[in-house]
């Protein structure tokens, strides 16, 4: 039978056994028929179900009358063994002469030896969790033992003999209930009314978004968009309970589930421990550990697996995804890479925030448009201060981020809108390096991924200036240092059209260049367009879903008669006709404009913007 023990809350710390002295003892055996003149009552915790406790009687005693001894009134004298007591093995540091011999037998109602009383009184100098652990050793709660009584929160309470009791929480804790067990050791002279203080772990997940064409990076948010092959920054946060110092062990596992469009870089994870909220101004971590450099399997392990159960079912956004687990055996152990305890002699404060920052790539398996590429996170945390076994772990609710990507297709036609074969295109994206001044601006060409699903579609090594792109004829004939042919995408036949497809792009400024022209036709003018992402913050509400909805309407900066087809299902793929003419080379690109709406958790933000507008619901980090 598993027992769950928890240090008393600070509000009742003064009532614990180690803080209450004993008043004398005699060598005579006591009558075990003492009257139940005292009472234990547990108040209900708002917003949580009523917990039930086993009441284990450790010692009994006689209350001191205030008329006899004002200074010690309501304390207990004549301390005797209770019905659930046992004598533990001699504690470390106690002399043999100061502890009963191994043949000593505990008898209910017998007076507790003076040496044992003195030891228990000495425990008041220990920290709360150590005192609780030492007192727990006096409780005989072995399999088959029967508790003295039970008491339920919110009920009238239970009558007991004056004495010292351990209240063991026997309630089943549900996953995601924001609940935890509590166990208390209290002394009862007349009536003890306890208001339990229970809190548990919070967890949340964030993502960063980078705007390539401005050089700006967001703070930690909930929704973002990226190009295929981009590296995405993620942060996982666990907030430990404020009574973490009461625990003897604290095991916590970070569990992160990535959809198949995300490739985890398992070597990128770094654990950070904070003694203040990491989102507060000026916050700095007290401990930073690159987890790929840490090697102590007794304190930390990492594993990955494919999704199972409902996440692996057909139609699940996480089918064929990855489950990553960062497991910390005991964050109260100084050897842990996420140690939260005091780091210097004399310190007593414990840290409460643990974060893991890692990166993943948006790969070629990513979903274009809806429902995006989700990533969900929860922690499994300890509910038993005296155990670090997996059976004592409960989980928080999942927190979800979503990363989007889009596709732009160009259907090649004649001026009369008849399908036209033989064209090839290069799509350039504007990149600005860094925020502020000075900034470097260049244009990088799109390259189809092929079978390499993690390859970046916009090269990090090949870049062009705006002037080079404007001189199209020179661009096509450029020397081998910048072989533009390596980046050509041919308009191939699909659904009755000759279509050039560019999947896996996000917000930014783009230039479409026709580098190979069908025989007998003029080259189309370079077409410049923008996909613009506009942030919307919803007061910190957690994201649970994200969608792209109509209207969709795409326009080029050189507007002509609108020849764009409208994507009516909001799936994130936008199509435009691009024309070739045998006449004089005039601008002929059709209008192509898009408004894309993200709705997150029921929030719909309407945005009027020239170019492709993407409304991303973000949460303040």
Protein architecture, described:
The chain has 621 residues and is mainly β. Helices cover 5% and strands 35% of the residues. The chain has 4 helices and 35 strands. The chain has helices at 114-122, 128-136, 466-470, 472-476, and strands spanning 38-42, 52-63, 76-81, 149-152, 158-160, 163-169, 184-188, 191-194, 202-207, 210-211, 216-217, 223-225, 231-239, 252-258, 262-274, 287-290, 300-306, 322-328, 353-362, 373-382, 393-395, 399-404, 406-414, 424-433, 440-445, 489-490, 492-494, 497-505, 508-516, 527-537, 547-549, 573-580, 595-600, 603-604, 612-618. Strands 24, 25, 26, 29, 30, 31, 33, 34 and 35 form a 9-stranded mixed β-sheet that branches. Strands 12, 14, 17, 18, 20, 21 and 22 form a 7-stranded mixed β-sheet that branches. Strands 2, 3, 4, 6 and 7 form a 5-stranded antiparallel β-sheet that branches. β10 (210-211) and β11 form a beta hairpin. The radius of gyration is 34 Å and the shape is elongated. Residues 1-31, 534-570 and 585-621 have low confidence and may be disordered.
Give me some keywords for this one.
621 residues, 7-stranded mixed β-sheet, disordered N terminus, disordered C terminus
Strand content: 35-45%
What's the alpha carbon Rg, rounded to whole Å? 34 Å
Number of helices: 4
Low-confidence stretches: 1-31, 534-570, 585-621
| N-end to C-end Cα span | 43 Å
Class by SSE composition: mainly beta
- Summarize the biggest pleated sheet: 9 strands, mixed
Tell me the number of strands: 35
Average of per-residue pLDDT values = 78
**General form:** elongated
Roughly what percent helix? under 10%
């Amino acid at each position: 039978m598993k027992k769950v023990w928890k240090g008393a809350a600070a509000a009742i710390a003064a009532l614990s056994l180690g803080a209450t002295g004993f008043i004398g003892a005699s060598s005579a055996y006591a009558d075990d028929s003492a009257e139940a003149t005292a009472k234990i009552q547990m108040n209900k915790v708002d917003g949580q179900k009523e917990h039930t406790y086993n009441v284990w009687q450790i010692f009994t005693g006689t209350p001191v009358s205030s008329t006899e001894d004002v200074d010690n009134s309501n304390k207990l004298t004549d301390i005797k063994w209770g019905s659930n007591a046992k004598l533990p093995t001699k504690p470390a540091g106690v002399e043999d002469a100061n502890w009963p011999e191994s043949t000593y037998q505990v008898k209910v109602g017998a007076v507790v030896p003076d040496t044992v009383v003195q030891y228990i009184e000495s425990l008041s100098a220990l920290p709360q969790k150590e005192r609780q652990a030492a007192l727990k050793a006096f409780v005989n709660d072995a399999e088959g033992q029967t508790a003295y009584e039970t008491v339920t929160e919110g009920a009238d309470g239970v009558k007991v003999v004056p004495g010292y009791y351990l209240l063991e929480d026997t309630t089943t804790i549900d996953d995601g209930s924001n609940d935890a067990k509590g166990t208390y050791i209290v002394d009862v002279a007349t009536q003890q009314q306890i208001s339990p203080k229970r809190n548990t772990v919070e967890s949340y997940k964030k993502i960063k978004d980078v705007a390539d064409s401005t050089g700006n990076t967001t703070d930690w948010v909930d929704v973002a968009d990226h190009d295929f092959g981009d590296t995405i920054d993620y942060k996982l946060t666990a907030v430990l309970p404020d009574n973490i110092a009461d625990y003897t062990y604290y095991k916590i596992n970070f569990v992160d589930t990535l959809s198949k469009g995300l490739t985890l870089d398992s070597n990128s994870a770094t654990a950070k421990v904070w003694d203040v909220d990491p989102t507060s101004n000026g916050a700095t971590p007290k401990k930073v550990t690159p987890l790929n450099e840490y090697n102590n399997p007794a304190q930390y392990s990492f594993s990955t697996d494919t999704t199972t159960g409902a996440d692996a079912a057909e139609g699940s956004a996480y089918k064929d995804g990855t489950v990553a687990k960062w497991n910390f055996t005991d964050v109260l152990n100084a050897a842990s890479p996420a140690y939260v305890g005091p780091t210097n002699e004399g310190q007593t404060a414990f840290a409460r925030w643990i974060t893991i920052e890692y990166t993943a790539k948006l790969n070629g398996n990513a979903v274009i448009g809806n429902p995006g590429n989700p990533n969900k996170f929860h922690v499994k945390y300890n509910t038993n201060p005296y155990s670090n076994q997996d059976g004592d772990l409960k989980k928080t609710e999942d927190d979800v981020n979503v990363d989007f990507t889009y596709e732009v297709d160009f259907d090649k036609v004649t001026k009369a809108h008849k399908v036209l074969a033989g064209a090839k295109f290069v799509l350039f994206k504007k990149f600005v390096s860094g925020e502020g001044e000075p900034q470097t601006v260049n244009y990088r060409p799109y390259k189809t991924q092929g079978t390499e699903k993690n390859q970046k579609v916009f090269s990090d090594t090949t870049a062009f200036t705006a002037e080079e792109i404007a001189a199209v004829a020179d661009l096509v004939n450029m020397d081998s240092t910048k072989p533009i042919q390596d980046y050509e995408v041919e308009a191939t036949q699909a659904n009755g059209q000759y279509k050039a497809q560019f999947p896996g792009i996000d917000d930014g400024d783009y230039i479409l260049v026709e580098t190979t022209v069908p025989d007998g036709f003029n080259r189309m003018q370079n077409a410049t367009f923008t996909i613009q992402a506009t942030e919307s913050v919803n007061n910190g509400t957690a994201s649970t879903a994200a969608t792209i909805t109509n209207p969709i309407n795409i326009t080029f900066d050189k507007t002509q008669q609108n020849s764009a087809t409208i994507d009516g299902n909001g799936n994130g793929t936008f199509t435009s006709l691009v024309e070739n003419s045998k006449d004089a080379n005039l601008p002929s690109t059709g209008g192509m404009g898009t408004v894309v709406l993200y709705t997150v958790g029921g929030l719909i933000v309407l945005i009027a913007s020239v170019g492709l507008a993407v409304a991303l619901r973000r949460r303040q980090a």
